[in-house]
Amino acid sequence: MSSQHNERFLDLFDRMEAMGMRDAPIKRFNMSLPQIGLLGAIARQPGSHAQALASELGVTAPTVSVGLRRLEEEGWVRREADPQDGRAMCHFLTEKAHAAVRAVKQHRRQKVAAFLNVLKEAEQDQLLTLLEKAFRQIENKSAS
Question: What average pLDDT is seen over the chain?
Fold first, then answer.
């Protein structure tokens, strides 16, 4: 990929962020993007330990622990002792957090629909196919 293509691609990501792809629900719930990411990880893996969440998010366990503590204090996350290992804690979303995660997903769906709806169906298929191909290649290289 030429440097011109790199710059065009980065510019497109900047423009997507400027469209508010991730921001609106975050402001509504007064949360940071990492906090929303942590809630999303718990939603995908209810009952996870901090170490598993850290691994999924690509951050350190202490970073996740601090985030979990803050989210718990604010009523977004609850923790329970692991029934198989009483020393470990399992993390779950509260109903308030489930509502926030649903709102974020709905917001993202609306933004993606607005983004894709300006393209014809064949163009949408082509765009998605090319993005899937690029992601597969990157994922395969990462797994090696």
Answer: 89
